[in-house]
Design brief:
Aminopeptidase, seven-stranded mixed sheet, eight-stranded mixed sheet, 12 helices, FemAB, PG_Glycine_Bridge_Synth, alpha+beta, single chain
């Protein structure tokens, strides 16, 4: 009589992302299981090159089969402390697994890894399972909508009030350019740095944007007025969707409706690239940014975020809307732009 079949035990280990074969194997799992661009090893490695924060991750396997993946960035910050983020500098991520048991196993392995690395906090831009996790579904929302079939249909898909703003932008004396050349990157960073300083937020290092542009499917769309860049956005492309990710505008952009023109032109540009969805990214629930996206006709979809804090430690607070950071934000808004651009990357590389 034959012995009964013993199923292969599932194991968990740290992935070797700098091994091309390992990274390619994980990329295949992400693509086959509907993962986001932020689940990709390519994203983690671009973040590592651009910020110095170490790319890592946990792999679940059953024999030769990958059954789960948790992308992680090991964050170090003199201001905000140490943590594991899934994924670093991302708005999505978290566990990608084939069943609930694997999800629990990866979450437990992440807790063990965090303790070994002296990281008292884990933040997952996605759900978690198991003991000790705090899960929120009311803090952020995502906004995704299909792209229309042609130029006219895309304009008509925009609600009437917002469509009037887009038409003003179309009537203005504006030029639109797309690309990844040095001049595109320089214009984008100058506008983005100014925009986030005005919001009281430290700017990310330019090396992060360069690494993402050099590694992933991404480009920059810039709107100019009489040759002067006034609005610009760096967008990511993944599985048929475009996501305007890092964007901003100057003070002049508002009167010119340059931001409205920018997002409309990006919709047309993405459709020409073969995209069928516009992912407006995440916004804090109830924020002005969320209201802006709703004005475009996008419906808010709650996002699930999870966090874990090691016993005996306080929960990490890097939320820009937190009361404890308001005085810092007010001070940052008053900094001269050259000083903000010099200090900002040193702080922002640790935000995650």
């Amino acid at each position: 009589m034959n012995a009964p079949f013993a199923p292969t035990r599932e194991t968990f280990r740290i992935a070797e992302l700098h091994q091309p074969d390992e990274a390619a194997r994980i990329e295949g799992f992400v693509a086959a299981n509907g993962g986001t661009v932020f689940h990709r090893p390519a994203w983690l490695l671009a973040v590592e090159r651009g910020t110095g924060q170490r790319a890592t991750g946990l792999l679940a396997e059953r024999g030769a089969e990958v059954t789960g993946w948790l992308p992680l960035t090991e964050m170090h910050s003199p201001v905000f402390g140490r943590m594991l983020a899934s994924s670093g500098f991302a708005v999505e991520g978290g566990v990608l697994a084939q069943d609930a048991a694997t999800t629990r196993g990866l979450c437990r392995a992440a807790q063990e890894l965090a303790l070994r690395l002296s990281c008292p906090t884990i933040e997952l831009r996605g759900p978690a399972a198991g003991e000790g996790w705090a899960v929120r579904t009311d803090s952020h929302c995502g906004f995704v909508q299909p792209l229309a079939a042609d130029v006219e249909a895309q304009l008509l898909a925009v609600p009437r009030k917002q469509r009037a703003e887009v038409r003003k932008g179309l009537a203005a004396e504006l030029e639109v350019a797309t690309g990844t050349a040095p001049e595109d990157r320089a214009a984008h960073y100058a506008i983005y740095a100014t925009s986030v300083r005005n919001l009281g937020t430290p700017v990310f290092p330019r090396s992060l944007f360069d690494a993402v542009l050099d590694t992933l499917e991404a480009d920059i769309l810039t709107v100019c007025h009489r040759g002067e860049p006034v609005a610009s956005v760096l967008s990511l492309y993944h599985e048929g969707a475009v996501m305007p990710y890092w964007g901003g505008g100057t003070h002049a952009a508002r009167a010119l409706r340059a931001n409205d023109r920018m997002y409309y032109e990006l919709m047309l540009h993405a459709r020409r690239r073969g995209c069928d969805r516009f992912d407006f990214g995440r916004s804090k629930a109830g924020s002005g940014a969320a209201a802006f996206k709703k004005n475009w006709g996008f419906e808010a979809q709650p996002l699930s975020y999870a966090s874990w804090t090691a016993p005996g430690h306080e929960a990490r607070d890097a939320d820009p809307t937190s009361e404890r950071h308001q005085s810092r934000i007010a001070l940052w808004k008053r900094l001269p732009l050259p000083l903000a651009n010099r200090l900002g990357p040193l702080i922002a590389r640790g935000l995650g």
